[in-house]
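Severity: low
Component: inverse-folding endpoint
Summary: output formatting inconsistent between runs
Steps to reproduce: submit the following structure tokens with default settings.
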């Protein structure tokens, strides 16, 4: 959220807003405490003994309770207005739409993956062995291709005289280098 500073820069404005919100929260807590006390009184049976209570005092308490409820409702609106500025609401709307789109994509991908998985499950238990054999063959093919490329490069170097090679008499291995 973009907090605009009052006198003292951005952090000064944040402190002022924080203090204001704390004061409102303290007031709200006091209103809630009063409301809870009145609710407890009603639950203890104050309405059953209404004839013993001064009618005027009772109506005053009812009015007070209604005022506290209205105050809490107005504070709720204030909190919502202070929390979500129009630009924040617009940004949150964009985020919500983007997340909804991504969620639908993920759900679609999940459904597709589940379809593929059910096809694989339908192939039976031998399919797992076939996949393992295929992976081994694929690795052997890659190894053979690597070796073929290495031999081609070595052959090309030999044909172009880039490397002089001599057979070592001991074990038949090739030795490279200038002799």
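Observed output (run 2 of 3):
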């Amino acid at each position: 959220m973009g907090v605009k500073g009052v006198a003292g820069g951005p952090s000064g404005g944040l402190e002022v807003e924080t203090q204001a919100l704390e004061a409102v929260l303290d007031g709200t807590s006091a209103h809630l405490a009063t409301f809870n006390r009145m609710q407890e009184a009603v639950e203890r049976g104050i309405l059953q003994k209404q004839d013993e209570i001064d009618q005027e005092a009772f109506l005053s308490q009812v009015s007070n309770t209604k005022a506290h409820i209205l105050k809490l409702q107005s504070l709720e609106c204030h909190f919502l207005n202070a929390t979500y500025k129009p630009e924040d609401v617009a940004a949150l709307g964009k985020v919500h739409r983007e997340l909804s789109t991504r969620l639908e994509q993920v759900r679609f991908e999940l459904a597709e993956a589940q379809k593929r998985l059910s096809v694989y499950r339908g192939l039976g238990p031998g399919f797992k062995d076939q996949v393992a054999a295929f992976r081994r063959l694929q690795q052997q093919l890659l190894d053979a291709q690597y070796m073929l490329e290495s031999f081609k490069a070595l052959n090309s170097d030999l044909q172009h005289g880039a490397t002089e090679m001599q057979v070592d008499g001991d074990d038949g291995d090739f030795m490279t280098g200038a002799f």
